[in-house]
Each structure stands twice: as structure tokens, then as C-alpha cells.
């Protein structure tokens, strides 16, 4: 592959954060320890640990964590001799207070995540992280849902606040390869900082989209071991490493160790296998936030509605992350109109 960047590719493993959605935020300290230790031994660059909705996400609305995420972050940091621990923060769900705490426990990087049109709310958190000496990256969620010029304008805002990379985040797993290409290319030609890419596999395009992003010069790339992420999961890390090695890109991550940890450590802790089924496929098709899946299934059961109808309506209403309450609202109104 001919890459449009000479910067090294850095992988962020997200199974302990995005995968938190898939296990309804029920990770235990022992699980986080075991996964982090094995990832560190395999040479993973960054390991993200937080509630699925980022720092401060443990609420009735988003789902309560079994264990306080600060305990999980602390446990993860203790296991690392080479990997760096990252956290995710959505301004308004998490605050600088949680960020400070995560940093004091040893988190080295924060991804400040906003809806693709709302980068301005990330200024304070990016500034604060940089003052703390953390790496601070911007994460523009639902990147499919804004025109490319808006995406570029919002990414520039994050860069102006001090973000060292900005991600095209395909939260709904709905982007097509050429749509990823156009987005990463536009950001590469307008920004000086690194570009990242985060995929969901709802339309079975996570790997293809990730390769296109890398080709266009994205250097911060996300994956989840065994696809442990929301919806149909993310780009499968061990498969990505194998594919990149086949393309002669060697990132210093041990493939055998990743394969072993996928089967022996991650598979046993999965509550359900993230797969392309009627729920995740509907999200990819309708452009709905991957983390809405379990909420929509629960609401469907409660109101006797097919979760696909709820997801399609959420897509029509262009629901954004943080609007989980709208899921119940949609289910209730579909029930009323039945
Ligand atoms: C709710 C936060 C979300 O899970 C972040 C993310 O991974 C995405 O938007 O895909
Ligand atoms: Mn995600």
C-alpha cells in the first residue's frame, strides 16, 4: 500500500472502553488487569479504559458501571510496562475533575469526543489536558452526519485548541470506503496535526474503511480485539495487525500474542459476540450510534416494538450520542401509534 504519510501508525485498543457498551459496563478489575497485561505484553501502543460513554458515564441514563472506572484505570496502569493508558471524555458527561483524577492515576492520553458539529465544547478539556502534560486528541463522532466542509471546519477548531490528532469517528459504522477516503483526504490537506480513524463493523466495512484511512494518511488507528466494541464491534485488532504485516507494515505488535489474548482472555469475558445481525446492521444502514444497540433492544422488549423500527426512527431523527433518553421516547411513541 502506498501511504500518504510518513508518520508511524499508532494503534489504540478500545475493547476496554468501546467494549464496555457490549458488556453493559460490567467489567471487573480482574478482567481489566488480565486484558491490559496481555495487551502490554503484545506491545500494544495505547489501551483505552473508561466507561463506554467516557469518563463520568456511569449513570442511570448510560448504564452504571459495575466497578468505578477510576479503579479500572488504576488497575490497567499497574499492568503496563510499555503500553500507555488512554481515556475518553465527552464534555458534559465527563468534566475536568475526572480528567485530573485519571491523569493522577497514570492515564497519558485523552480523546475528547464531541458530536461532529460541536467541536467548540472541547476547548476547555483539550487545553486542560495539554496543561497536565497529557496527549490530547479530538474525536469527532458521527462523522458521516455532516458535510465534509463542516467536518474540516470542526477539526480545525480542535486543532486550534491544541489537539495533536483529530479522528474521523464512524460511530454508526455507516461510512462507505469512498466516504472515508474523502473525509480523511480533506482533513489531511487542511490540518497539520495527525488524523485518526475509528470504525464500527455494522456494514462489514470496518477493515476496508480502516485500510482506506491508512492509505489516505491516517496514523492513529483504533481496533478492538475479538471485535469487542459497540454494535458489531470495531475493526478487529488482531486481524488488522495480520493484514498490515501482509502489507509489510510492522508496528512492533506481536501477532501471536494478540491472537492468544483474543481467544484466551477476551473471548471468555464477552457477554455476547458482537456480530452483524439485524440490530447492528440496522444501525449501520440507518446511521445510528452503535452504543444505542442494547438500549434499543431493551426498549423494544419493554414496549413490544421491533428494535429495528426504533433504530430506523432514531436514524430519521438524527439522534446524537447523549440522547439515550430519546430511545425510550421513540419506543413509547411507536407503541402508542401501533
Ligand atoms: C458514546 C461514546 C462513543 O461510544 C464513542 C465512540 O466510540 C464512537 O462514537 O464510536
Ligand atoms: Mn466506537
TrEMBL record:
It catalyses: (S)-4-hydroxy-2-oxohexanoate = propanal + pyruvate; (S)-4-hydroxy-2-oxopentanoate = acetaldehyde + pyruvate. GO terms for biological process: L-leucine biosynthetic process. Substrate binds at residues 17-18, 171, 198, 289. It comes from the Bacteria. Mn(2+) binds at residues 18, 198, 200. Keywords: Aromatic hydrocarbons catabolism, Lyase, Manganese, Metal-binding. Pfam families: DmpG_comm, HMGL-like. The record marks 17 as: Transition state stabilizer. Residues 9-259 form the Pyruvate carboxyltransferase domain. The keyword Nuclease does not apply. GO terms for molecular function: 2-isopropylmalate synthase activity; 4-hydroxy-2-oxovalerate aldolase activity; manganese ion binding. The keyword Iron does not apply. CDD domains: DRE_TIM_HOA. Its EC number is 4.1.3.39. Belongs to the 4-hydroxy-2-oxovalerate aldolase family. This is 4-hydroxy-2-oxovalerate aldolase.
Amino acid at each position: 500500500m502506498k501511504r500518504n504519510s510518513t508518520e508511524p501508525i499508532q494503534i489504540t485498543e478500545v475493547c476496554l472502553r468501546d467494549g464496555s457498551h457490549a458488556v453493559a459496563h460490567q467489567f471487573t478489575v480482574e478482567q481489566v488487569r488480565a486484558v491490559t497485561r496481555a495487551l502490554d505484553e503484545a506491545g500494544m501502543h495505547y489501551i483505552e479504559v473508561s466507561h463506554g460513554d467516557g469518563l463520568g458515564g456511569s449513570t442511570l441514563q448510560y448504564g452504571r458501571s459495575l466497578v468505578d472506572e477510576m479503579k479500572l484505570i488504576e488497575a490497567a496502569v499497574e499492568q503496563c510496562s510499555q503500553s500507555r493508558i488512554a481515556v475518553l471524555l465527552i464534555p458534559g458527561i465527563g468534566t475536568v475533575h475526572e480528567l485530573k483524577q485519571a491523569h493522577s492515576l497514570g492515564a497519558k492520553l485523552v480523546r475528547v469526543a464531541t458530536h461532529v458539529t460541536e467541536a467548540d465544547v472541547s476547548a476547555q478539556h483539550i487545553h486542560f489536558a495539554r496543561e497536565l502534560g497529557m496527549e490530547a486528541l479530538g474525536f469527532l463522532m458521527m462523522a458521516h452526519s455532516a458535510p465534509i466542509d463542516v467536518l474540516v471546519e470542526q477539526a480545525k477548531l480542535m486543532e486550534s485548541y491544541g489537539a495533536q490528532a483529530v479522528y474521523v469517528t464512524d460511530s454508526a459504522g455507516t461510512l462507505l470506503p469512498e466516504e472515508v477516503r474523502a473525509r480523511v483526504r480533506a482533513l489531511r490537506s487542511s490540518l497539520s496535526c495527525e488524523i485518526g480513524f475509528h470504525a464500527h463493523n455494522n456494514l462489514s466495512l470496518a477493515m476496508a474503511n480502516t485500510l482506506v484511512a491508512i492509505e489516505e494518511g491516517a496514523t492513529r488507528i483504533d481496533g478492538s480485539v475479538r471485535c469487542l466494541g459497540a454494535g458489531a464491534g470495531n475493526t478487529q485488532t488482531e486481524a488488522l495487525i495480520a493484514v498490515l504485516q501482509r502489507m509489510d507494515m510492522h508496528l512492533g505488535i506481536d501477532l501471536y500474542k494478540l491472537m492468544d489474548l483474543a481467544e484466551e482472555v477476551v473471548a471468555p469475558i464477552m457477554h455476547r459476540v458482537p456480530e452483524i445481525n439485524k440490530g447492528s446492521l440496522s444501525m449501520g444502514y440507518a446511521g445510528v450510534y452503535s452504543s444505542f444497540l442494547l438500549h434499543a433492544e431493551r426498549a423494544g422488549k419493554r414496549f413490544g416494538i421491533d428494535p429495528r423500527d426504533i433504530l430506523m426512527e432514531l436514524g430519521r431523527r438524527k439522534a446524537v450520542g447523549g440522547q439515550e433518553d430519546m430511545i425510550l421516547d421513540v419506543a413509547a411513541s411507536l407503541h402508542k401509534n401501533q
